[in-house]
Write a structure and sequence with these properties.
Elements (H helix, E strand, L loop, with lengths): L4 H7 L7 E4 L3 H4 L4 E4 L6 E6 L5 E6 L3 E6 L4 E7 L5 E6 L4 E6 L4 E5 L4 E6 L6 E6 L5 E6 L3 E6 L5 E5 L5 E6 L5 E6 L3 E6 L8 E5 L10
Antiparallel strand pairs: 1-2, 3-4, 4-5, 5-6, 7-8, 8-9, 9-10, 11-12, 12-13, 13-14, 15-16, 16-17, 17-18
Amino acid sequence: MALRPGCLSRMRVFAAGAALLCTLSTAAAAGEGYARLEGHGGPIKGLAVSPDGRHALSASFDTSLGLWSLPEGTHLRWLEGHEAGANAARFLGNGRALSVGDDFDLLLWEVESGRLLRRFEGHRGKVMGLAVSPDGDQVATAGWDGVIGLWTLADGDVRWLEGHTANVNDVVFSSDGSLLYSASYDGTIRRWALEDPAPLPVTLKKHGFGVNHLVL
């Protein structure tokens, strides 16, 4: 059972797995090279940097998200809401962020206060990855239930994209938001035409092993 980071900080214990962020801006110019971000009580599963480069979110197996200021690496607050390990996070505009976890859920946050704004439920397995559409209106989630969730942030509506035969590990939108790419343990990279009301996947590549991450 993972200890919450609040308990760890009171005990002044810093577990292995703390995030190391290399910053090549002010810290590098000062000759420091990097900042060490410490405090999580479990392995770091994902990191996100805000578009302005001033903040980072760390998603941890200890169920928490850590908010940090950059480049100095000062810890600002914990975002608590996941009921199991947090796997990935993304910043949105207007002071908001998203995260997914082993609790099968997608969470929407108010970053400044750390307040949980909304919980999106529906997956039947761990959610390992997420991607935000270029216009910021939709979020795609990669589930270990073998399906992709395509969520509308404004109202919480979801479309399920089915076609993979094993866990889905990662998703990424095209630059215009019309296409979605997905990677799976079934060894395939697939493409989905989102303008189709019932998109069918096109297999772009089939590997002999599972595909864990995508970069477009």
